[in-house]
Amino acid sequence: MKQILVLTDFSDNAEHAAKNAVQLSKKLHTGLLLYHAYEMMPIDPYYASLPYSPPLYASEEEKRLKLLTETLKNNDVELEADSPVNIQCMIGEGHLGENVKEIINEKNIAFVVMGASSGSAFDHLLEGQETLKVINKSNLPVLIIPSHTDLKEVKKVVFATNYEKNDINALTYLADLARTIGFTIDIIHIDVYKSKEPDLLSEIVFKRYVNGLNFNGISYHDIKGKDVVTRLNGFCKTSDADILAMVHYHQGFFSQLFGTSNAKKELAHQQKALFIFPPNFVSE
Known about the structure:
Mean pLDDT: 82
Low-confidence stretches: none
Oligomer: single chain
Distance between the termini: 15 Å
């Protein structure tokens, strides 16, 4: 059975994301793996000569992880006792990004879930170093859930694209999820006015492949001009989208587009969940 990998630092936002992940696990018929990574502090030379004892920090973190696991299980039973989600927990020492990569290689993971530490999910993506490490080390999509977002019902996903080849892999994955969960997909083509001609061949190849998915719940929209971030933000709000999805290319199109000061200001209050696909993602 596949598992949703949920990363936690025991914050309120992380617990909120984990509760949403339980709901998604029910819909996708997966298990849930709750994971916490910690890094040991360097040992002071004065204490290095003293007799060794097991690190108390790791022990305390393990207790907190088991307590959170039991909380999720109890909440799940209260919601729907007939089909509880199989929730497991795991703790590890080291860097979060590397640890996540190792877990993905060893476990049958569907995707990764994180809570947004503060502000919007875009703040977490653009400013959160740990988040970027997880995305860059992972070959699976990462779902970032803000504190005020409820994914109990997912009815619409907006997928932003400029017709890159890897976007097709991400859209194939989303279409498979949509068939199970029952949401529709709005494909938003982002077209910033430039001096060069539009890449019509990429658009033709992209749409031809999408038509071959045999999924009727897909519609196309275009956002053109210079102020595309504001318009994308507005589209997500007016269309009642639950999730905004995109492929994150390191130093690529969307990184440049969303990384400007004006874009950050516009997206600061965007409370949609973000489903970020790493550039090396390949759908099964």
